[in-house]
Amino acid sequence: MPRAAELRDRWRATSLADVWLRPSDWYHPAVDALAEAVEADRSPVAAAQRLGAARAVAGVGMGEALDDVMCLYRTTGCPTDPAALRAVAVGWAESQGAASQASVRDPSTGLPTADYLGERLREAYGEAQRSGTAVAETACLVVLDVALDDLDTWRRTARSATVGRTLDQVFGEGHPMAVLTDGLYAVLTSRTNVTPHLAQTLRRVVEKNAEILGLAGAMRRPTRVWIERLPATHADAVDLLGHLGR
After folding, report:
1. pLDDT by residue (tens digit) across 215-233?
2. Predicted pLDDT of residue 37
3. DSSP class of 151
4. Which of 82, 103, 124 is the last residue of a domain?
5. pTM (predicted TM-score)
6. Residue 57's closest CA among 12, 110, 98?
7. Residue 153 sits in a domain of what CATH number?
């Protein structure tokens, strides 16, 4: 559509002159779709939402993305369509939400990351402070180490997925857990749940599941399980997670 292409080029020039920060990342195929919709006087909503999502993925702020679309309408000489701006904002926000969710999950295990566990620890320390108790007296970390060097990608991924499922089986819902680094996992749990047989039970279930799936050779043997006492402050607990991860 030549006229839509001309509109796109005028839009780009206006945006780069007035609001856009980095000329090299302005173009995206959704730009063409939105220019075509505006030129043909069709609903801009679908294209604008797609563009908003693309801007979020590229690291463009919502304000800059909205200002850019306002430049499009200024180029046409028509009033800005509020539906287009709303669609850009919705697409941007949804994309950011999905990225945030993904960032707290390790893709191979489905378990949260150490950053997520650090935030759950923040909640635990805050609750203990409000109730006048000490976290170290009520909670602890159960740490599981199955790490081995020199595993290929497939065996490493399969092992991680197996351990993730096993931790869900043993501890169930309601226990914050995370993968700290490849082969090393931690579960935040109440000290009342830590029995003398917990480490043995967890080790046995992990190793049994690995044998069933043909992954015994991908696990550290014997599997290491230990109880880590929590320090006095949240900052120290975050440092502890970092130390364990190294």
Report:
1. 788 888 888 899 999 998 9
2. 94
3. -
4. 103
5. 0.57
6. 98
7. 3.30.70.270
